[in-house]
Amino acid sequence: MTAANTLSWNDAFVLGDARTDHTHQEFIDLVNATTAAAPEKKLAVYQELLAHTVEHFAQEERWMTACGIPADFCHFGQHNSVLEVMKEVERRALAGEPAYIGSMIEALVEWFPMHASSMDTGLVTYLQEKGFDTATETFKDGAPAATEAAVPSCGHEPGHSCT
């Protein structure tokens, strides 16, 4: 494995929510497993990473939706963009162009630390402020009032793009 295509789990990735941290550690393990996979197994391992990422993002999006964060906030958009490219890489690999997997892994290694330290950190903080328990996907003291304004995990105001 090359350093450019791997991630190392460390304290910087610990966000203080056990379920998020576990999901992120699994993601990192699958990124590294894809890098380490033999050429004939790389696509299959990449497909495991893709399936995990689909569920990982769906999980976070369920939590955001439960807290009243609308689907047009940038956290959702970033998930959609990453999945769109990952699925295209899978399509290209299935069509006989497996080299794109390495490029995708390199991009994920570059993207994930910033995403986790900004958007996911903001999300975890917001969920905790709202009393949302990620283990049960419920609110500790009942759902917040519908009149409470949702704040996106990246901090931008509704109707304004993330910069």
Structure notes:
With 163 residues, the chain is an all-alpha fold. It has one domain: Four Helix Bundle (Hemerythrin (Met), subunit A), CATH 1.20.120.50. Helix content is 61%, strand content 2%. It contains 4 helices and 2 strands; from the N terminus they run ααααββ. It is elongated. The N and C termini lie far apart (34 Å).
Instruction: Categorize the overall geometry.
Output: elongated
Structural class: mainly alpha
Number of helical elements? 4
How confident is the prediction overall: mean pLDDT? 90
Query: How much helix, percentage-wise, in residues?
Result: 55-70%
State the order of secondary-structure elements, H for helix, E for strand: HHHHEE
Tally the beta strands: 2
User: In which order are the strands of the major sheet placed?
Assistant: 1-2
Question: CATH class, please?
Answer: Mainly Alpha
Beta strand %: under 5%
Q: How far is the first residue's CA from the last residue's CA? A: 34 Å
Taken together, the total number of domains comes to: 1
Give the SSE layout.
Layout: H1 18-36, H2 39-66, H3 74-94, H4 99-130, E1 132-133, E2 138-139
Antiparallel strand pairs: 1-2
Brief descriptors of the model:
163 residues; 2 strands; mainly alpha; elongated; two-stranded antiparallel sheet; Four Helix Bundle (Hemerythrin (Met), subunit A); 4 helices
